Amino acid sequence: MINNNKNKADIGVFGGSGFYNFLEDVQEIKIETPYGAPSDDITLGKIGDKKVAFLPRHGKKHSILPHLVNYRANVWAMKSLGVSRIFSPCAAGSLQKHIKPGDFVICDQFVNKTWGRPDTFYEGPIATHVSPADPYCPELRNLAIATAKELDIKAHETGTILAIQGPRFSTKAESKFYTAMGWEVINMTQYPEAYLARELEMCVVNISLITDYDAGLVGDVPPVSHSEVIKVFLDNNEKLRKLLFSTIEKIPAERTHCDCGNVLEHSRL
């Protein structure tokens, strides 16, 4: 791992679609990992007094599809910089009518429906079982919720995000099932990204920007298209930037209101 103090960061941000260039006075660094190359070079910059590392999960040109992202390399690269808190914003679809395009959801749970993605750093010889019962950091979630209220940004305080394999969107039958299950948000990248961050004892928070109603909530609105997703995301990009910047500035130096930093103590026999 990198020990050069110049290449250190407190906070990491995995960017979603259309959110690659939000830092000023930056430097870019290349990191090699035991799991291969991350999605792109990492950009380092400052927000307030916090050193922030930014990595576009799909690459700067959005050329890496969700099921092909090297999530382990991305998360390991952040850890190697000394990052202890991860922001994982993403474009997402709504599965419920009351959650509208343009809203934000500060998710507190995920459901995984992906397959074949390497999703652990612990493949032996020590048996390690990191619990995902509460996958998102309560301290970061509360900060994001409070900041959204201060900025008068519509943000739902809880929500379950469903991670599907991609790159295809849902059929109407699948979307109907997901809605009936009561899940709120659908996306293609939250798993295993969020869980891998937890495995490395980093706090992680998801901020989902709702861009569409998935497969039309079975006929109520037109089915999702990629062009519409990008349009809504870009239209709301400034709100997301404000929410991220303001939340990051409020993060305390020490982690005292969560157990994210010691999950391995309870994960091994």
- What is the residue-mean pLDDT, rounded to a whole number? 90
Name of the CATH first level: Alpha Beta
Domain module tally: 1
Low-confidence stretches: none
Strand order in the sheet with the most strands = 8-10-11-6-13-7-9
- Helix-strand makeup class: alpha/beta
Report on the biggest sheet.
Answer: 7 strands, mixed
Shape: globular
> Compute the gyration radius: what is it?
18 Å
Strand content: 15-25%
**The CATH topology:** Rossmann fold
CATH architecture descriptor text: 3-Layer(aba) Sandwich
Compute the number of helices. 7
SSE arrangement, N to C: EEEEHEEEEHEEHEHEEHHH
Q: Can you identify the CATH superfamily?
A: Nucleoside phosphorylase domain
Helix content: 25-40%
N- and C-termini, Cα separation: 26 Å
The total count of strands amounts to: 13
Could you characterize what this model shows?
With 269 residues, this protein is an alpha/beta fold. The chain has one domain: 3-Layer(aba) Sandwich (Rossmann fold), CATH 3.40.50. 26% of the residues lie in helices and 21% in strands. It contains 7 helices and 13 strands. It has helices at residues 71-80, 138-150, 172-180, 190-199, 216-219, 226-235, 237-250, and strands at 11-15, 27-29, 42-47, 50-56, 85-87, 90-94, 104-106, 109-113, 155-156, 160-164, 185-187, 203-205, 207-212. It has a 7-stranded mixed β-sheet, with helices on both faces. Strands 2-3-4-1-5-12 form a 6-stranded mixed β-sheet, sandwiched between helices. α3 links the parallel β10 (160-164) and β11. α1 (71-80) packs parallel to α4 (190-199) and α2 crosses α7. The mean pLDDT is 90.
